[in-house]
Amino acid sequence: MGTICVVGTGYVGLTTGVCFADLGNTVVCVEIDLQKLDTLRSGRTPIYEPGLQELLERNLRAGRISFTDDYTLALAQAELIFITVGTPMGPDGAADLSQVEAAANQIGRHLAHDAVIIDKSTVPVGTGDLVGAILREQLRPGVSVQVVSNPEFLREGSALADFFKPDRIVLGSADRAAAEQVAELHAPLGAPVIITDLRTAEMIKYASNAFLATRISFINEIAQICERLGADVREVARGMGADKRIGPHFLDAGVGYGGSCFPKGVLALHHMAATAGCHPQLLQAVMDINVDARRRFVTKLREILGSFEGTLIGVLGLSFKPNTDDMREAPSVEIIKELQAGGARVKAYDPVAMEAAGEIMPSVTYCATAYDVAKEVDALLVVTEWNEFKMLDLDRVQRLMRRPVLLDGRNLYDPADMAAKGFTYRGVGRGLAAV
User: Fold this and answer.
1) How far apart are CA 102 and CA 420, in angstroms?
2) Which domain holds residue 151?
3) Across-strand partners of 382?
4) Overall domain count for the chain
5) Are 182 and 118 contacting, i.e. CB atoms less than 8 angstroms apart?
6) Would you call 39 helix, strand, or coil by DSSP?
């Protein structure tokens, strides 16, 4: 196998590049942000992902991975070229493909030999055809390429495990030989390989994300009903998940999904469906319920405090999920902004995301520990389920607070225990007995 080229070093690109290098391949990553490029060349990751820093250092030392902003250099020996650039949401919900188009243009201009181009970015159905058309416009005479769609299914916080032990490898192409060449690259992972046409592979990614988001919104809808009828959503989810047809995953009620995949993916699929003349009412409901989960969380606190004016509120957890510093579409942002709009002062703690959060919410006071957050607050909100919050000394927390009000957006604590400790406690979907 020749050199692998990875264009873009975000979560997906950097994980892809480093992990393929760790499998023994020679990998060259293209990054046009010069500050980020310097960071990577120095052996530091610009993102937080458990284990990624160590893997990067190891493969840099071994000489299996390198970073450049020079397309000619990066493509010189590359047989397989991954496009892993960002596809952010546009104002209408459509994916912004400007970075994908720019990467395809640069590859077409600088490629001097036949190669397979692999779309790994999350892209709308039909993007593989678009990339192929751009490449054909730019390629010099005698050079030919094949395009393969290879959607990623990495979860932030467990990306390395997901890469090395995937549930499946999805490959879509009009050229079977090209798809099989990419399948061979993935052979050491020992995962089932699904080969389809381009558009079907692209759709598998969106359909998968939308289904998982639907499960989360479904259990949050059930949680609201549980609160009104006196049932406990955690036990409901446990009973549902024991059914083999349903399974236990993605049935944790809370303050909704966030991150770079689910919000963007559901909205983009909704946009694609509407543009194609469909009526995606289920997708719309999934998004509406997700927004409502955050609003109801804030409403619970307002019902207890009466008003946010002049209050001091503590927030535990800022990233959209544990084990990442990613603040994209994080529920904490919407919750904190609503608290501040009502006149509250907010202080917060997160194990790794405070630097990123500070760029978005500079008016929040960031603390060194969870206990510092608890000092003199009128209420404490658990928004992200970091492990260290599960074993807090809650008696100490209660003594530090001005008012012992705790809203548990991730159902980490037992309502009866919290009541016994003197807290005014609210979980999500824990039933009338819990309030």
Assistant:
1) 60
2) 3-196
3) 316, 408
4) 2
5) yes
6) helix
Average pLDDT rounded to a whole number, residues 170-175: 97
Alpha-carbon Rg of the chain, whole angstroms?
24
Question: What is the Cβ-side half-sphere exposure of residue 303, based on CA atoms within 13 angstroms?
Answer: 12
Q: Which of 153, 180, 196 is the last residue of a domain?
A: 196
What is the number of other CB atoms lying within 10 angstroms of the CB of residue 344? 21
Active site residue 367: no
Q: What phi, psi does 74 have (nearest 5°)?
A: -65, -35
Q: What are phi and psi of 89, to 5 degrees?
A: -70, 135
Q: Are residues 338 and 397 in the same domain?
A: yes
Amino acid at 44: R
Residues 169, 252: Cα–Cα separation, whole Å: 27
What pTM value is reported for the model? 0.92
What CATH number does the domain containing 186 carry? 3.40.50.720
Give yes or no: residues 98 and 142 share one domain: yes
The span from the CA of 209 to the CA of 207, in Å, is 6
Give the start-end residues of each E strand in 10-97. 27-30, 65-68, 78-83
Average pLDDT score, the chain = 95
Chain position carrying tokens 């990233």: 319
Q: Say yes or no: 252 and 126 in one domain.
A: no
Q: Is residue 221 part of a domain?
A: no
Task: Fill in the amino acid letter for 37.
Answer: L
User: What number of CA atoms fall less than 13 Å from residue 248's CA on the CB side?
Assistant: 5
Catalytic hit among 19, 29, 226, 261: 261
Helix %, strand %, coil % for the chain, to 5? 45, 15, 40
Q: Is residue 216 part of a domain?
A: no
> Do 83 and 191 fall into the same domain?
yes
Q: 284-332 pLDDT, tens per residue?
A: 999 999 999 999 999 999 999 999 999 999 999 999 999 999 999 999 9
Both tokens assigned to 269: 């699929």
Note whether 252 and 180 are same-domain residues.
Answer: no
Domain-located, residue 293: yes
Rounded CA separation 434/338 (Å): 25
pLDDT tens, position by position, 345-381? 999 999 999 999 999 999 999 999 999 999 999 999 9
